[in-house]
Each structure stands twice: as structure tokens, then as C-alpha cells.
Amino acid sequence: MIRLAVLRPTATRLVFLVEWFLFMLLALLRGELETGKQILVASYPLAFFYFVACALALLSEHTQQLARGWRPLVLALGLTGVDQLTKSLIVASIPYQASVPVIEGWLHLAHARNAQGSWVLSTLNSRGMGTVLLMIAVPSILLFSVFCHRYYVSTQRKSLWADVAFVGLFAGCMSWVCDMYFRGHIVDSIVLPGVLAADLKDLFVTIGAAAFCAEALDNPDVSLRPRGWRTDGQDLIQLAARVADFSIQEVRGLRRVFMKLLGKGPEECG
Fold it and tell me: DSSP states of 176-225 as a string?
């Protein structure tokens, strides 16, 4: 029997509710949730995110890592593939702008399109320029995030929260890149009637961002208090230098592995 204590609210669990709560608050202020039914439909995902947080908290008590080595990257790419496969199936089976009720009035599968790229950008009314800038920046950020995660779990501490943060954010952003580059829009398939349309990518990003915050709260070595702009700036520069040096070593290590697989000698590996 699962201990009821696992459902006890803590900072690391409640942080999983923040993004969706802010979305609901913004929608209320803008008058987009006008009826009691809409508010109820918008509210029940809070339970979903909280149970995800509780499940991860329970898992973190038994393991420090989601996966070892480069496996988190493989898992993130696998989730990207699941999202893209799901969208292909939706496009093939549900006509554009049509929906299929899963729970009538509460949860539908649909074939919708989002030109902005995510429900966050849509909510903020982000226009084309923001999307273009993201299309330029996100691929570089994805590559950088791989080495940042490797640096953190290799030199700082192994953490389930850090792994979940990387996997969720990488998978969500990578799926966004695939959609925007190859489709020119996002295929939204999860519809909360009268509230919004989303996709698996949005779930990945929301959970990943929450896990990132949970790691900051859970790591006793992370201080959230500023020590002064000069000191914090120097620490940030030193951290960037260490990550860059670690990344170079990782790339060299990967190059040696690939050369070995290709049958090259040590002198050819450089």
C-alpha cells in the first residue's frame, strides 16, 4: 500500500502546480474562463500534475538517477519520437478542426493547429517575430543543455529531479523544433473543451520546468539568495568556463569513441 505521506504537500511537489495555476489566473483575469464548467475543466489538470510530482518524489526516495550516462538523452529523443508519432496518427485519423471525446465535455482528442508553437506563446499572444527568434535560438540551447546536464550530474550531484528536468525540457523543445521546421505549426491533440488545446510537448516542458525548480529547492548547495551583482557575476563567469571546459572534454571523448568504432588508431584520434 502506498503511504499517504507521499501525498503530503511539500515545496518540491507544489512547484509542479505553479505554471498551470498561473495559466488559470491569467485566463481568469482576461475573462476567458467565464463559466463554472470552464473553471472546473481548467482545474482538474492540477490534480494530474500533483500526482506526477508525488510519483517522482516517491521514486526519488529509491534512486538518485532516472538513467545513467547518455541514457537520459536517449530517453528524451524517445519521448520526442512518441510525440511526433502521436501527432502523425492524429493527423491521419482525425480531420482538421474535428475532435473525438474521451470524456465528453472534459477531455477530447482533436486535430488542431497552433501557429505560435505552444500554449504559453498563444496565451501571451506572441507574434511571428518571437517564434522566429525561438527557431534560431532553441537548437543551440538544446545542444548546450546536453553538456550542462552532463556537467551537473558528473561534477555536482546525481539527482532524479535534474534528470527529469533535462529529459522533459529537451524532449519538449526538440519536438517543438521538429514541428516548426517540418510542419510550420504545432499539431495540438489534447483539448480541454472551452479552455485550451495542447500536446504531449506541453506536458513534457511543464513537468521538466517544474523538476528544474524542484532540484533548485532540493539541492542544499544551491542558494537562491543574491550575494551582490559583482560576486554573482564572477561566479557565473567561472561556472560558464567550467562548463565549457567540461564540454570540450566530453566532445573529445565522444570523438575518440567514434574513431575507435571506425577502426582508427590513437594517433588518428588526435
Answer: HHHHHHHTSSEEEEEEETTTEEE-HHHHHHHHHHHHHHHHHHH-TT---S
